[in-house]
Write a structure and sequence with these properties.
The complex is a heterotrimer of chains A (122), B (275) and C (283). Chain A has 122 residues and is mainly alpha-helical. Chain A contains five helices and two strands; from the N terminus they run H-H-H-E-E-H-H. Chain A has two domains: 66 residues, Arc Repressor Mutant, subunit A (Orthogonal Bundle), CATH 1.10.10; 42 residues. Chain B has 275 residues and is an all-alpha fold. Helices cover 76% and strands 0% of the residues of chain B. The two termini of chain B are 35 Å apart. With 283 residues, chain C is α/β, with parallel strands linked by helices. Chain C has two domains: 212 residues, 3-Layer(aba) Sandwich (Rossmann fold), CATH 3.40.50; 63 residues. A six-stranded mixed β-sheet of chain C has the order 6-7-8-3-9-10, with helices on both faces. In chain C, strands 2-1-4-5 form a four-stranded antiparallel β-sheet, with helices on one face. In chain C, strands 12-13-11-14 form a four-stranded antiparallel β-sheet. The longest helix of chain C has 17 residues. The chains are: A mainly alpha (122), B mainly alpha (275), C alpha/beta (283). Chains in contact: A-C, B-C.
C-alpha cells in the first residue's frame, strides 16, 4: 500500500478511504483498535499532520472514535454506514456515467439492461 | 555566549589539545630514551640513560603550544559553527582551553623534567626561563623559600607558554579569516618583510643618517626591560611581577585582536584529503 | 518548539546576489521542504540562519530573539550541511560525542542504534568514509541532537534507495516522538512529497512560494486533448507551458482544476509537486 502524493485525491483522503476499505473488508473490525497516526505516518512515510487530517475526517463522519490514552477505534455500525454511503457513490459514479456513456454511444436503456443481465451471469 | 555553550566548547577543546599533546610528549619521551640509550651504547658499549635531559623543555613547550594553538584554531571555530555556537564563544573558550593546557604543560615541565634529569648524574636542568629571569638555584642560594621559587617558576612558565599559544592563535585567526589570495599575500609579507624589507629599509635609512640596526637594538632592549628580563638591569634576577604582567597583557591584546579578526568570519570547512 | 522569523534577508557573494530580501516565517513543529534549483540560494539561506555565514542585511529572530552570534538562540538549531565542519581525522563516534557536548538533549543510544541500522562503522574516521556514509553520519547526528529546528541540506545526496527510504522513515519517527521543525532541502521532490507539510520555494534568491503542499496541489493542472479544443480552453487562462504531439496538445495551466468548468472532451490531470515546481521555476 502506497499513498500517492500526486494522485487525483489528496493523501489524507486516500488514507481515509484506505481505512474505510479495511473496515468494510473486516480487516478492522468494529470496536477494534486501528493503527495510530504515528504508526501509519512512519510505515507509509507520510506527514503525520496529513495522517491526522485523514483520521479527523473519519472521526467527523462518526466512523472511528478516540479512546483517550489508547488510540482510535472503529465505531459500532461503521461498516453499515459505509456500505450505504458506498451504495450512493456507486449510483453516482458508475450508474450515472454508465448511462451517459451509453447515450454517447447510442445504446438504448433496454440494451443496457440486457447487457447488465448478461454481465451479471458468469 | 551562554554558560553552557562556553563550557561545552571548552571541554571539547581541552580534550582535543590534551590528547594530541600527550601523544606528542610520549612520543618525544620515548624517542629521547631510545636515542640516548643508543648513543650511550655507541659511545662506550653500555645501554644506559646517562646524559639524558630535556634542556629548555620550557622553550620546547612554548613551541609546541604555538603550533597546537594555531593548528586547532580552525577546527575549534568550525566545530563551534557546526553546533550552534558563535565564533566569539569558540575563540574565548580557545583562549581558556589553551591557558589550561599551558598550565598543565608548565606543571609537567616543572615536575617531570627534574625527575627525568635525576635519572642520570650528568643530566642538565636548564630552562630558557632561567636564562632570562635567573636560575632557581640562585634564588634558593640567596635564601628564598624553595617552594616559592618553584611556584613562581611554574607561573612564569604557564604565562610564557600561554603567550606562545596566543601568538599561534593570532596567526591562525588571520589565516582563518583570509581568503586563499589573502593568505598567500599575508604569508609573503611575513616572509619577505624580514628578509628583504629590513635590509632595504636599513640601507635607505642609512642614507638619511639613521642607523636602523642600533635603533632595533635599542627597541629590543626596551622590550626586554618592559618584560623585566634579568641581564638588562645588570643583575642576575629578573623582575618576575613585571614580566608576568607583560606576558599576560600581550596575550590579552593578541586575544582581543584575534577576536576582532575572527568574530564575523565565515565557517571555513577543512578540505578532505582523497575526496 | 521554536519559531524562526526571517526578515528582509539579503546576501551577495561579489557580483552574485545570492539572496534578495527574503522574508519568511518557519513555524514550530512542521516538516518543511525547501525547494529550489541549483544555485537558487537554499544553502545560503540555511547557512545564514545557522550562523555559519553572515547576511549583508536583514535579521533573523528565533522565538523573538535576534539570533546572530546569540548562542542561546542558536543552540535551538542544528544543521546537517553539505560541508564537513569537523576535523576529517575525527572518528564518527567522536563527532557524536562532540555534538553531545553542545546539545543537552543529545541521545547517544539513539545515534548508536541508527548507526547499526545503516551499518555505519562509528569507529571509522570521517575522511575514510565514502561521501554517502559521511552524509549518513551527519544525518544520524542531526536526528540524535533533538534540537527544536533541524536543517537538512540535501541529506539524501549520494544515498542509495534503501538508505533514502530509511531516512524518510526515521525522520517521521523522530518527528512523532519529539515534535520539532525539520527543514529539508532536496532535489528529489517526488520522493519527499508525501513527507513534507509545507513547501518553501526559492527562485533566483527570492522567495517564490511558502504554502501547504495541499494548497500547492491546487495551483495547477494539465488539460489534454485535441489541439484546437485545448487552445480554446486555454484562452484567457495562465498557461505555464505546452506540449504538442501530432494533433494532440497538453497545456499546463495555473489555477485550481476544481473551480474550473472543464469540457468533458478534455482530459484533466492534477500536477505532481515536482512538475508544478519545474513549471514555476523555469525562467
Amino acid at each position: 500500500m502506497h499513498f500517492n502524493p500526486d494522485g487525483e485525491k489528496p493523501i489524507y483522503v486516500q488514507m481515509a478511504e484506505w481505512i474505510e476499505e479495511n473496515i468494510l473488508s473486516g480487516a478492522f473490525p468494529e470496536e477494534a483498535q486501528i493503527p495510530s497516526t504515528t504508526d501509519i505516518s512512519a510505515q507509509y512515510k507520510i506527514n503525520p499532520a496529513t495522517a491526522l487530517k485523514g483520521m479527523n475526517i473519519l472521526v467527523d463522519k462518526g466512523i472511528i472514535y478516540k479512546k483517550r490514552g489508547l488510540g482510535m477505534f472503529v465505531s459500532e455500525g461503521a461498516a453499515e454506514k459505509l456500505r450505504s454511503e458506498r451504495k450512493q457513490e456507486f449510483f453516482e459514479k458508475f450508474v450515472k456515467s454508465l448511462m451517459s456513456e451509453a447515450e454517447k454511444l447510442g445504446i438504448t436503456k433496454n440494451e443496457v439492461i440486457d447487457m447488465i443481465e448478461r454481465g451479471g451471469d458468469k | 555566549m551562554t554558560k553552557h555553550s562556553f563550557t561545552a566548547s571548552y571541554k571539547y577543546q581541552v580534550r582535543r589539545i590534551i590528547f594530541m599533546l600527550i601523544l606528542t610528549l610520549c612520543a618525544a619521551l620515548v624517542a629521547e630514551i631510545i636515542l640516548v640509550a643508543i648513543a650511550n651504547y655507541g659511545i662506550d658499549g653500555r645501554l644506559t640513560l646517562e646524559g639524558i635531559g630535556f634542556p629548555c623543555l620550557d622553550a620546547l613547550s612554548g613551541l609546541m603550544l604555538f603550533i597546537y594553538g594555531a593548528y586547532f584554531l580552525a577546527e575549534f571555530m568550525n566545530a563551534g559553527a557546526a553546533n550552534g555556537v558563535s565564533r566569539t564563544t569558540s575563540l574565548v573558550s580557545a583562549i581558556a582551553s589553551n591557558f589550561t593546557v599551558s598550565a598543565a604543560l608548565a606543571l609537567f615541565v616543572s615536575v617531570v623534567s627534574p625527575l627525568i634529569n635525576s635519572l642520570s648524574d650528568s643530566g642538565s636542568d636548564i630552562f630558557l626561563l632561567e636564562f632570562i629571569y635567573g636560575e632557581k638555584k640562585f634564588f634558593e642560594f640567596y635564601g628564598e623559600n624553595a617552594f616559592v621559587v618553584r611556584i613562581r617558576f611554574f607561573i612564569m612558565c604557564t604565562l610564557s607558554v600561554f603567550l606562545c599559544a596566543m601568538v599561534g592563535i593570532l596567526f591562525a585567526a588571520a589565516f582563518y579569516k583570509l581568503s586563499r589570495v589573502g593568505t598567500v599575500i599575508f604569508t609573503l609579507i611575513i616572509v619577505f618583510v624580514p628578509a628583504f624589507g629590513y635590509p632595504m629599509a636599513s640601507i635607505s635609512l642609512a642614507k638619511r643618517g639613521i642607523d636602523l640596526d642600533s635603533c632595533m637594538k635599542k627597541f629590543f632592549t626596551e622590550v626586554e626591560r618592559a618584560f623585566g628580563m634579568a641581564h638588562v638591569n645588570g643583575s642576575q634576577a629578573g623582575d618576575f611581577v613585571r614580566g608576568g604582567f607583560m606576558m599576560l597583557l600581550t596575550a590579552v591584546v593578541m586575544g582581543f585582536i584575534a577576536w576582532l579578526i575572527v568574530r564575523r568570519a565565515n565557517a571555513k570547512p577543512a578540505a578532505i584529503r582523497g575526496d | 518548539m521554536s519559531t524562526i522569523e526571517i526578515k528582509n534577508l539579503s546576501k551577495s557573494f561579489g557580483k552574485n546576489q545570492a539572496l534578495s530580501d527574503v522574508t519568511l516565517t518557519l513555524k514550530e513543529n512542521c516538516i518543511y521542504g525547501l525547494l529550489g534549483r541549483n544555485g537558487a540560494g537554499k544553502s545560503t539561506l540555511m547557512n545564514i540562519i545557522n550562523n555559519r555565514i553572515f547576511a549583508d542585511s536583514g535579521e533573523i529572530l528565533i522565538d523573538g530573539i535576534p539570533s546572530r552570534d546569540n548562542d542561546k538562540a542558536l543552540g535551538k538549531l542544528h544543521m546537517m550541511g553539505e560541508q564537513l565542519l569537523y576535523a576529517p581525522s575525527l572518528k564518527v563516534s567522536e563527532m557524536f560525542k562532540a555534538a553531545a557536548c553542545f546539545y543537552p538533549e543529545y541521545d547517544m543510544e539513539y545515534a548508536m542504534k541508527l548507526s547499526e541500522e545503516y551499518k555505519l562503522n562509528t569507529k571509522a574516521k570521517l575522511q575514510k568514509l565514502s561521501t554517502g556514509y559521511r552524509s549518513i553520519a551527519k544525518i544520524i547526528n542531526a536526528l540524535a541532537c533533538n534540537a527544536d529546528v533541524v536543517f537538512f541540506d540535501e541529506p539524501v545526496l549520494g544515498l542509495d534507495a534503501n538508505h533514502r527510504d530509511m531516512f524518510y522513515r526515521q525522520a517521521i519517527e523522530k518527528y512523532n516522538s519529539r515534535p520539532a521543525t525539520f527543514v529539508i532541502s532536496t532535489h528529489l521532490i517526488e520522493e519527499a512529497a508525501g513527507l513534507i507539510e509545507r513547501a518553501v520555494v526559492i527562485k533566483d534568491g527570492r522567495l517564490l512560494l511558502d504554502e501547504d503542499t495541499e494548497a500547492i496541489r491546487s495551483m495547477g493542472y494539465s488539460v489534454s486533448g485535441k489541439a484546437s479544443l485545448v487552445d480554446e480552453f486555454a484562452k484567457g487562462r495562465e498557461v505555464m507551458s505546452e506540449d504538442t504531439l501530432g494533433g494532440l496538445k497538453t497545456a499546463y495551466i495555473k489555477g485550481d482544476r476544481f473551480s474550473e468548468n472543464i469540457p468533458d472532451e478534455l482530459e484533466v490531470q492534477p500536477l505532481s509537486l515536482q512538475s508544478l515546481f519545474i513549471h514555476l521555476t523555469n525562467s
